[in-house]
Write a structure and sequence with these properties.
Blueprint (H helix, E strand, L loop, with lengths): L1 E8 L5 H7 L3 H13 L3 E9 L2 E8 L2 H16 L3 H4 L4 E4 L1 H11 L11 H15 L5 H20 L9 H10 L4 H5 L3 E5 L3 H13 L3 E6 L2 H13 L6 E6 L3 H7 L2 E4 L10 H12 L53 H12 L13 H18 L21 E5 L16 E4 L1 H9 L6 H50 L5 H31 L5 H9 L4 H18 L3
Parallel strand pairs: 5-6, 5-8, 6-7, 8-9, 9-10
Antiparallel strand pairs: 1-3, 1-4, 2-3
Helix pairs in contact: 2-3, 5-7, 5-17, 6-7, 7-17, 12-13, 14-15, 17-18, 17-19, 17-20
Length: 564
């Protein structure tokens, strides 16, 4: 069995697709249950955040696993498989481990270095444990991922490379002004009382807002969060809770509103936002020309690349020489990932032979060329939105809105309202693409590489352990049988003599087995060492059922001893 991850994130898919594919908690549970019920998968876990949806599984067949996991993601997300496939990425075995460890360290986050992902990975593991879908591999993988993430944050300055999505969002709202200067004395409305909303409330309190109103569908949770804020010794903020139906009234009093709920529909419509601004200013709210193209609008083509409206790549800095059909799955990938994707396409696991599209062979050749380009110039950036027209200035905002939900809580049409500044996941993704990378990122990447190698060695060594245990058990049975036979042939031996004989035979067997078993564990821990367990079973004619029974016993012990 090997770990496989199939997913999509802000790096591979536009926000419009991520938004439609977002999974509610019930859908996540059903996805995990259906995955472990499927034939190729033995274990499963879902990592779903505001900018990624990833399905991890322990599979025994790569191609069947990719097909099954992709189909299940499409079914439970409600996005058709044909539409979803171009945005999916696939990682297998060590590449899957490398991906999760990179995610845990914040290297793959929208805001590089943010630490919130560790809590989300922990929640994902807890959910899988509660559903009994996490066996030895998923438990080891996710627990080690958490340790790697904590190590990266403690041993490097990766925290300097980025901050939480909340802090980054507030910086975008402040638009170049120091957040504490911008926030001082403001009244804030926080919609939702989950982990992200709680972080937003705490961040606003530390930034210096004067008042925080918490609205939530479950009033008790809103009241509990407000009480925590009031009891904090670090701030002087005044917090209170209100029911959700009070949001329209509270919005007219608020200077800034942050929303992050699990709602599947809009929490704030453009009309509600306009009414709130009108209530604050006493003037009708005009609509202005939005300087951002609508979602799904064609992106401008890069020079020399043709005019395919779906092209997500910006290769203007790289010499052209090959055409680009614009498969979003390769946008922003590193060279190694592109090469893996090329091999995946070349193996025919993705059917892209639709009318007007290239064959798998041609697609593999293209992605190989993109991999070479990526190796020379680093990550291939997505095309940016057009800059605002020179001289254009929006009116000063009367209401600041931060939407951290996926799917979105606040109508995107609020971007067009005069007196409103809206920052959502889409605009955060655009802003973060231009954020500087810290030098510590390279150090974190080295940590990830070392930890992936160590994890692989440990897993390979663990794979051979049941076989070694079965071999020693067989040897012990042989010794016991020979001692019993000796007892029958030499009945006159006293107990002391029998004990000496037993110890001598055991020492001989232990000495004969010590060097081979130690060496086979060392060899099995090396890359390509998986075959040593099979060789050992063949050489000593070990019963496969005995090995399997030992493996089940080890798994049972691991689960029993594993902390909640």
């Amino acid at each position: 069995m090997s770990v496989l991850v199939v997913g999509l994130s802000h790096r591979s898919a536009p926000v419009s697709v991520l938004e439609r594919a977002a999974l509610a908690t019930d859908a996540q549970v059903k996805l995990v249950q259906d995955t472990v019920a499927a034939e190729p998968a033995g274990e499963a876990a879902v990592l779903a955040t505001c900018n990624r949806i990833e399905l991890y599984a322990d599979v025994d067949k790569f191609h069947a696993g990719v097909a099954e996991l992709s189909t299940l993601l499409a079914q439970h997300s409600g996005v058709g498989l044909d539409e979803l496939t171009p945005y999916l990425y696939v990682h297998y075995e060590d590449r899957a481990v490398h991906h999760l460890f990179s995610v845990a360290c914040g290297l793959d986050s929208m805001v590089v270095g943010e630490g919130q992902i560790l809590g989300q990975i922990k929640d994902s593991l807890a959910q899988a444990q509660e559903l009994h879908s996490a066996g030895r591999l998923m438990n080891d993988l996710f627990q080690q991922g958490l340790r790697v993430g904590k190590r990266a944050h403690s041993e490097t300055g990766i925290d300097r490379a980025g901050q939480s999505v909340v802090t980054f969002g507030l910086e975008q709202l402040a638009a170049g002004t120091d957040v504490e200067v911008w926030a001082k004395g403001k009244k804030a409305l926080v919609i939702g009382a989950g982990s992200m909303s709680s972080l937003a409330a705490a961040t606003l309190a530390r930034a210096g807002v004067a008042e925080i109103v918490v609205a939530n569908r479950t009033y008790d949770r809103a009241e509990r969060l407000a009480q925590i804020l009031n009891d904090s010794d670090d701030t002087d903020v005044v917090a209170r809770a209100v029911p959700m139906d009070s949001v329209p009234v509270e919005l007219t009093r608020a200077d800034v509103a942050v929303s992050c709920t699990g709602a599947t529909g809009l929490v704030l419509t453009a009309e509600a936002v306009a009414a709130a601004v009108e209530g604050r200013t006493g003037e009708p709210v005009a609509e202005i020309e939005d300087d951002r193209p609508a979602q799904g609008a064609p992106k401008p083509a890069a020079a020399g690349l043709g005019a395919d409206e779906n092209c997500p790549l910006d290769l203007t800095a790289e010499q052209s020489g090959f055409s680009v059909m614009g498969e979003a799955a390769v946008a922003g990938m590193a060279a190694a990932e592109l090469e893996q994707h090329a091999a995946w396409v070349d193996n025919g696991t993705v059917d892209i032979r639709e009318a007007g599209r290239r064959t798998p062979e041609a697609e593999a050749e293209l992605i190989g060329a993109l991999a070479a380009a990526s190796a020379r110039v680093g990550r291939i950036p997505e095309l940016r939105r057009p800059e605002p027209v020179a001289g254009f200035a929006r009116p000063a905002p009367a209401l600041f809105l931060l939407d951290l939900a996926m799917p979105r809580d606040i109508d995107a049409a609020a971007h067009r309202l005069a007196g409103v500044r809206l920052v959502d996941i889409e605009s955060l993704a655009e802003a973060s693409a231009d954020a500087p990378m810290a030098a510590d990122v390279d150090q974190v990447r080295r940590i990830v590489a070392d930890e992936v190698a160590a994890f692989g060695a440990a897993q390979r060594a663990a794979h051979i352990t049941p076989t070694v245990v079965a071999l020693r058990t067989m040897a012990a049975d042989v010794v016991a049988g020979e001692i019993a036979r000796l007892d029958g042939r030499l009945p006159d031996l006293d107990e002391r003599q029998r004990g000496e004989i037993r110890q001598a035979v055991h020492r001989v067997v232990d000495k004969l087995l010590h060097a081979p078993t130690v060496r086979v564990k060392q060899l099995a821990a090396e890359p390509g060492g998986a075959g040593y367990a099979d060789a050992l079973r063949t050489l000593f004619d070990l019963d496969p059922e005995t090995v399997a029974a030992v493996s089940r016993a080890v798994d049972s012990t691991d689960k029993k001893d594993r902390p909640e």
